[in-house]
Design brief:
mainly alpha
Length: 102
């Protein structure tokens, strides 16, 4: 327990920044009109593509006996891939809404 409390006190400024980033992100995303959702979704897909590449690089650099890093890297690759594919599916569906009906 003392290790956790000392880590929190050492990284207190970083924790404050992350919490503020969360609140700013929620405010910014909450005020986006639905017309801009598709371009923002495409940008989010590109960011998650970078996350996938980063996870692959981390997994490649991890030691063979570091199972925690390998498991977390593998989960990051799987979840990032699901997020990218899901984002493209949502983007495609939204673009279908703007096409004229036959």
């Amino acid at each position: 327990m003392n290790n956790i409390l000392s880590w929190i006190s050492e990284n207190q400024q970083i924790i404050y920044i992350v919490v503020l980033m969360i609140f700013v992100g929620i405010e910014v995303i909450g005020r986006v009109p639905s017309v801009l959702h598709t371009p923002l979704m495409s940008g989010a897909n590109a960011i998650h593509g970078v996350v996938i590449i980063g996870a692959i690089i981390v997994m490649g650099g991890a030691a063979k006996d570091n199972y925690l890093a390998l498991i977390l890297g593998f989960l990051a690759v799987i979840l990032g891939t699901l997020n990218v594919v899901g984002g493209f599916v949502v983007t495609d569906r939204m673009l279908e809404m703007f096409k004229k009906k036959k």
